[in-house]
Amino acid sequence: MGYFDVDDVLADAVEVPCKFQLEVAQVGFLAGQPGESVARNSKLELPLWLARILAIVGAGDGEGDGDGDTPFVELLPPDTFAARVMNAVKADPVALDLHAVSPYFYALAVKWVNLFSDAELGETVARLLLARAQEINSNAANVTLVERTLDDLAGPLASRQNGVHHSSPFMLTMDEWEKTVYKEAHEAYRDSKKWLLQ
Amino acid sequence: MALPAHLSQTFSPEEIQFLVENEPIKIFPRITTRQQVKRNHGDDRNGFRSTTSWTPHRWRMITTDEAPLNNMVAMQSTNVALWIALLLKQQAKCNIIAPEWLTVKGLDRSIQFEQTYPDRFSPLPWDWLVLSEILFKRASDDFHDPVHELRNRIQDLREMRQVKVLKGLKYLNESHLQLDNLSLLEINELRSFIVNIMNKLRDIHNAFSVDEQGESEDEDISYGTMRDSSTNMS
In this protein, which residues make up the domain named DNA replication complex GINS protein PSF3 N-terminal (chain A) (predicted)? Predict the structure, then answer.
């Protein structure tokens, strides 16, 4: 999670639903109507980095010392953390297609939990992570030390017939962060096995 | 930062082998490098100098540490670093003595331990997997026990320990992990996985426990700094 972490930047660019609580002039381009103003109570999808600021910073309505400022937007819960998804998470973490829910699920979850101090969501996500970690590990430990042959280039079918390529359906459901974890773990297992068999 | 991540954050098995080769091991030299050789075995306790005579060799090994290498006497066991033992072995100048745990008897005891305690690892040395592999490869004729039996037992041990590790991974948490008696190679292949998972668990945990404990005193510094970085983000 550094400044140059591409996945972190991409996770910040994920759009979340917001509701405008004030009428804001001249920002119609956000809704695809350049030059117009955005009306109060209209719903828009804004990238998280923008929505986060707008949900904190407010505009004074003329009177008061700033305490009573209304934030520009109110964040609405995104589909990623809808009850439907959370129920699926609780039911069977491993069978869940996390990549379909969001390719940056964990990064988003951490940001969301941070914003709302949502301990319940945090604990659910931690349990989900732990359950999926076992599956990631067992997939990563599955090492076949067969040199890549020309058959691999012929396509997935040819290599599957040779028993070279073991790809479980689970690996298609991993989110981007899980993929990097899998890759690093797999490389470590492969190196050890290679060394032991050399 | 010049190294790629997988080399800067963890060891490669080759690097572990390099570390292990610096460990001392017992050998039976077949050559004598000691300058003073006792000719008279009668009363060497009374006067060391009087009963010895000089038989100067034409060569000496260049070492920073005089003691073991230039004091080898044929068929008297001595401790040297593993890498030099392997070099001498390669030139048929010594026999390597397998450590006590690397015998059929010793390994059976370890296997027994692994079976008796389902939640603990047997106290093997930190380099057991690498050392046994090196010795099987380079000094297989120095074992008193048949090598294939030793190999089988090492393999059994490794598998039993892997099963235990898998069981342990279900209880990963954001703060604490104890891996007693696990060897460097075994830890190494799990390192990146465990570190990644624990870091993420801590991220999640910190994200929602910031506010609850924000008012209380910082219990330790590392937690305090973690909290600072996470609050800066929002």
Answer: 4-56
Instruction: Domain ranges for chain B, please list them.
Output: 15-34+59-97, 99-212
Is the torsion defined by CA of B25, B26, B28, B30 positive or negative?
A: positive
pLDDT in tens, A67-103: 557 888 888 888 888 888 888 888 888 888 999 899 9
For residue A13, what is the DSSP state?
T
With an 8 Å Cβ cutoff, are A109 and B204 in contact?
Answer: yes
How would CATH label the architecture of A1-76? Answer: Up-down Bundle (1.20)
In chain B, residues with a C-beta closer than 8 Å to the C-beta of A119 are: 208-209, 212
pTM above 0.80, yes or no: no
Mutate which: A5, A180, A184, vs B, most B CBs within 10 A: A184
For chain B, state the CA radius of gyration. Answer: 26
How far is B198 from B69, CA to CA, in rounded Å?
Answer: 46
Q: Which fold has domain B99-212?
A: Methane Monooxygenase Hydroxylase; Chain G, domain 1 (1.20.58)
Cβ contact (<8 Å) for B189 and A110? no
Contact across the interface for B230 and A122, Cβ inside 8 Å: no
